[in-house]
Amino acid sequence: MLILGIDTSCDDTSVAVVKDGKTVLSNVVSSQVNLHAKYGGVVPEIASRRHLETISTALSEALSRSGVTLKDLDCVAVTNGPGLLGALLVGVSFAKSLALGLGVPVIGVQHLEGHIMANFLRPDWPPFPLLNLVVSGGHSDLILLEKSGVYEILGETRDDAAGEVFDKVARELGLPFPGGPYLDKVAEEGDPQAFRFPHPKLEGRQTDYSFSGLKTRALQEYRACGNLEERVPDLAASFRSAVVRELLYHVPSLLRESGAKAFAVCGGVAANSLLRKEAAKLARRVGVPLFIPPKELCTDNGAMIAAAAFHRLLAGKVDGPELSAESDLPLTSWAAKGGQ
Q: Is 175 domain-assigned?
């Protein structure tokens, strides 16, 4: 079964072809980093216009690399939320038109579900139940995948997402856009013990996250040392260490309490080198297998959307002309009505 996956949720235009939900035949990503760099962040209107300009070319390239034609496709999948509304509209409109012209089903995929299913783009799928740390520029969530299509949110950020604070602190430290990858690189040269970041105290659900305090503390420390460039590596290393510590803090207890058979990390911040190392240490310590996508499948991509659509298609969950783009689409369970 060949599924075309499309993602235009933010500033990357991605089109991929995936076979049987696990084999990536092509995964084309057209980045807009250079376009938004001078603004220090993604400009939604500019992102939407660039998606319009590049999506047809990305489709042609994805088909060429995979060695298939449009008539070989069995389904078209697309991210329909959450994300930048104008950007989502480009992908959803394109996908619906393409599916209608080909006479194949169209499937809308929730963006977080796509990230989770990036770890299923492999011959040996993770076992259920699976505890997922979904961490990106817009999300920091602990989600239990009980079985295909059944999700339970066990923890989420109450303010900023981890990727968001990485980018914001990096910008204040004078690092290029996008800040997260540059902060990760600079942190390798610093001392993670140079600055102290306390563990945030929360009321209510203790497995939730709060990163805004860590972000404020980092900016205060930078100003306190006179914004000295030579302190940037140490501050970056200490801040990165604190964020990674928080991301993994409740994972051991949640693995025990949920009965999860494996731990998975996904999303753009899953490319962070320290998070990958510490997650591997944690998994070895508690004795569960760890699943992390290759770095090219951590950031937004069409392949993960196609992977998620494969499981939805098996369960008969297809959409039609009524499919819409939503900037704040919730993660919902659907397997109770026919999932695997």
A: yes
13: three-class secondary structure by DSSP: strand
Confidence of residue 336 (pLDDT cuts 50, 70, 90): low
- Here the tokens at position 31 are 């980045």
Say if CB 313 and CB 75 are below 8 A apart.
yes
Q: What would the DSSP string read from start to end of 64-109?
A: HHHT--GGG-SEEEEEEESS-HHHHHHHHHHHHHHHHHHT--EEEE
pLDDT for 55-104, tens place per residue? 999 999 999 999 999 999 999 999 999 999 999 999 999 999 999 999 99
Residues 6+ apart with CB under 8 A from 50: 11, 13, 32, 35
- The CATH number given to whatever domain includes residue 43 is 3.30.420.40
pLDDT digits (tens, 9 = 90+) for 131-188: 999 999 999 999 999 999 999 999 999 999 999 999 999 999 999 999 999 999 999 9
* 118, HSE (Cβ side, Cα atoms, 13 Å): 32
Q: Which domain holds residue 55?
A: 2-118+296-337
Please indicate, yes or no, whether residues 13 and 151 belong to a single structural domain of this protein: no
User: Are 101 and 190 within one domain?
Assistant: no
Asked whether residue 123 is domain-assigned, the answer is no
Q: Please report, as a single letter, which amino acid is at residue 263.
A: F
Regarding pTM above 0.85, the answer is: yes
